[in-house]
Design brief:
The structure is a homodimer. The first copy, chain A, has about 325 residues and is of the alpha/beta class. Chain A folds into 2 domains: about 50 residues, Winged helix-like DNA-binding domain superfamily/Winged helix DNA-binding domain (Arc Repressor Mutant, subunit A), CATH 1.10.10; about 260 residues, Rossmann fold (3-Layer(aba) Sandwich). Chain A is built from 13 helices and 11 strands. The longest helix of chain A has 20 residues. The mean pLDDT of chain A is about 90. Chain A binds a DNA duplex (30 and 30 nucleotides) through helix 3. Chains A, B: Belongs to the SorC transcriptional regulatory family.
Chain lengths: ~325, ~325
DNA sequence: CCAATAGATGAGCAATAGTTCACAGAGGGA
DNA sequence: TCCCTCTGTGAACTATTGCTCATCTATTGG
């Protein structure tokens, strides 16, 4: 076909696209105007799209978030990804992602058929649970991925499982163990006892795992909260630890370390690569490396973060 | 409703719009993603449009033309308006509009039910006729709005009616009169004689009138072609003539003059305001005033022009 | 000049989108 | 507190769009 006809076809496509998207006519009307069949009008509109004669511009902060989410999803092969606008007044605030996590939990728990939700550590997870809409789902199960007895023997501040169970009437399985045991042997013994094995079995069948992501630096949450000592933290950092999920420390490639606190950790180990829906939730410049490593190591297959963090992850 | 919810609704609208227009999901998919009913997803997409959160941009020269055409249509209440890209290599070229006029004629003549097409003067009209696709329509009628005997007594170069009849097999009604008679009385006598009255009657029932628009300046086509003398032209200009359609001169408000050559003109007078489809075809900076006046005076209710001319008309 | 072939076309059907309606819940005023 | 209004909702229906397939039409190569 001659170049002139080709051009004329594109002209028509542009005309059709204009009439369709900008003037808001139906394809039937356009067909009449351009003196072609409706099928052809439809093809012209398609062509206009295919040739990128027309572009869409979304003038809204959300647009950038959607774009970033799509790129993260593509780049790390994620099943789920949400990016919320960064709260400029409080850039490290997890309010935004907590709201989205709560939404995710709501959606999951709304199901009439029984579902199992497993929860990890993290302030965002905690905040999300607080925002979950109460709903009566006695057949659901909520299971903890981490020991909820803190170093001093009291039930941990992070009793997210109990809170979520309150709001849903679901059966819940807290993990009645300290975060760390005193030795690898003891850990191995404890995780074999009946109540713990049961928790592990339920967790293995979880439909959704929602976990926080912690960075391993001097301000590491596991240390701040008193779960690991300064020395233990530094030892892990020496071993290359850059982040942790449910206490499991991993290096910059997202490989779980086989040393230090990881040997005494009672938390249920992550599935690698993550196969069941495992959503990480975290924001903040300090966590960028940790999040990126977790994504690369496929410790998680979903992410909820904010715009600034998402951008930083992609720009690494 | 609280401002916060309002904002959140717009956020969702933006999300929905993004997913719909940019990611290309169906509203059903979006409904599932956003955890709302499909109907609500549709409302969000509508809202996104209504709030102008999303805009369309057509990256094609045609876009500007469509835009101009829409504005002209709106501003002058036109039934039909087409704007073609200006040929930068030949800005006064009427090739573009001739093609569109031909297309319009094709479309009109394609009809199986008999139609009557009336033709005026003008190079664009002439060129359009040459481009009409031959088609056999013996029941159509082609009628001339202007006398086709030029000053020297020969058949005019502008025998468009004959040409178009050749291509369609339609009956045709040339107007066997000189362009101008020698006096008003003579003109009034001539237009009453049977063959002329017949042409006039056919023309009155025309489904489409396609006319050129001439400017009344020193390069006026009616003068260049020898239909009016220099003195006659100047006299009309003194009377305020700014343009002419089928020889009928009008002033800057589009009012037909009741003086000079208009009194001796044999052309069928325009219907004012134009009620049957009357399309003016003209391009060029020199014609801008004439076209604008014709539009304002409602001597025409349709226009085919080019981008540069359209822009100039709107900017007056 | 003819056959092969790629691309275009329109009919008809399946999928998707838009609209209407009745209703439910939130919020505000008497 | 009660009622009213107003917004938002989903169901159901209708309109529009997208797609497939059989057919047709140009163009190119032999």
């Amino acid at each position: 076909m001659a170049a002139e006809n080709e051009k004329s076809r594109l002209d028509d496509a542009a005309r059709a696209g204009w009439l369709y998207f900008i003037a808001g006519h139906t394809q039937d009307e356009i067909a009449k105007m351009l003196q072609v069949s409706r099928a052809s009008a439809q093809r012209l509109v398609s062509l206009c799209l295919a040739e990128r004669l027309i572009t869409f511009r979304l003038e809204h902060p959300i647009a950038a978030c959607m774009e970033l989410a799509a790129r993260l999803k593509e780049r790390f092969d994620l099943g789920h990804c949400e990016v919320v606008p960064t709260d400029l007044a409080a850039p490290q605030s997890n309010a935004g992602i907590a709201e989205r996590c709560a939404n995710l939990l709501d959606a999951t728990l709304r199901s009439e058929t029984p579902v199992i939700v497993a929860l990890g550590t993290g302030r965002a997870v905690r905040a999300a649970v607080e925002r979950v809409t109460p709903i009566d789902r006695p057949n659901h199960q909520i299971v903890s991925l981490v020991g909820n007895i803190s170093a001093d023997g009291s039930a941990s501040f992070y009793d997210t499982v109990g809170r979520l169970a309150d709001r849903t009437g679901a059966r819940h399985y807290p993990m009645p163990l300290p975060f760390l045991m005193s030795s690898e042997d003891e850990r191995n013994k404890m995780v074999r006892i009946e109540p713990i094995a049961k928790v592990k079995a339920v967790a293995a069948k979880a439909d959704l795992r929602l976990v926080g992501i912690g960075q391993m630096d001097q301000k590491a949450q596991v240390h701040v909260d008193g779960f690991v000592t300064r020395d233990e933290l530094f030892e892990m950092m020496r071993q290359g630890a850059i982040g942790e999920i449910t206490g499991w420390a991993y290096d910059s490639k997202g490989r779980l370390l086989k040393a230090g606190t990881n040997k005494r950790l009672t938390s249920i180990p992550p599935e690698v690569p993550a196969k069941t829906t495992t959503i990480g939730a975290a924001v903040g410049a300090a966590k960028v490396s940790a999040i990126a490593a977790a994504l690369n190591g496929r410790l998680i297959n979903g992410l909820i973060t904010d715009e600034a963090t998402a951008r930083a992850i992609l720009e690494r």
